[in-house]
Amino acid sequence: MEIIQIVGLGLVATVLTLVVREQKPMFAFLLATFTGLFIFLYVIGKIETVIGVLEQLADRSGIPSIYLKTVLKIIGIAYIAEFGSQIVRDAGQESIASKIEFAGKILILVMAVPIISVIVETVLGLLPIGS
Amino acid sequence: MNIDVSAIFQIAGIGIITAMIHTVLKQMGKEDMAQWVTLIGFVVVLFMVIRLLNDLFQEIKTIFLFQ
Fold first, then answer.
1. Where are the transmembrane segments (chain A) (predicted)?
2. Is the terminal CB of chain A with fewer CB neighbours within 10 Å at N or C?
């Protein structure tokens, strides 16, 4: 029952943040960031096994590893961008947060371009008129 | 995981104690010393947070980006 530990940790950290915010808002922000990082780090360790199983499945079904790599990279970018933008939004900088999200979307799009081009080429190869 | 939950309490404690020292020094009329205490406490906490952030980014890099 690790979820109970995490929820308890979150509640305690929230109370501490509220206490500190009265005196020093900077420390409250850093405390919230630290708690977020801690929980994230805790969960990321669990995902590792899931990724391993996914890799094994892709290996067995003969999918080229470059596709799986791209998908995993996209997931990683999404995690980091989401995390960063949420922390910045917590600090009240809405505009910087939306710029971080925008950058994440653009980078994911750039990563996905090779896959899209492969799909388009496959579809063109299927068409009888093209050949 | 080398950083445990007590770091959260450490940060909160540093924040409260720094606020207390700040208030006391202000009452004594040493404004500049109070500012320095706040700055040093902030840097210590920032160092802890940055180290954990580095850990997280390394983990994400090894898991998702295969580097």
1. 27-44, 106-129
2. N
Summarize pLDDT for A62-73 with one digit per residue, the tens.
888 888 888 888
User: For residue B43, is it within any domain?
Assistant: yes
- Identify whether B37 is part of a domain: yes
Cβ-in-10-Å burial (0-12, 13-18, 19+) of A103 comes to middle
- Per the structure, how many domains does chain B have? 1
CB A115 within 8 A of CB A67: yes
Q: Is the ipTM of this complex over 0.90?
A: no
Q: Do A16 and B18 touch (CB under 8 A)?
A: no
B27 within some domain: yes
Do A19 and B8 count as a contact with CB atoms less than 8 A apart? no
> Which residues on chain B are in Cβ contact (under 8 Å) with A27?
11-12, 14-15, 18-19, 41-42, 45
The predicted-structure confidence for A19-34, as pLDDT tens digits, reads as follows: 988 888 888 999 999 9
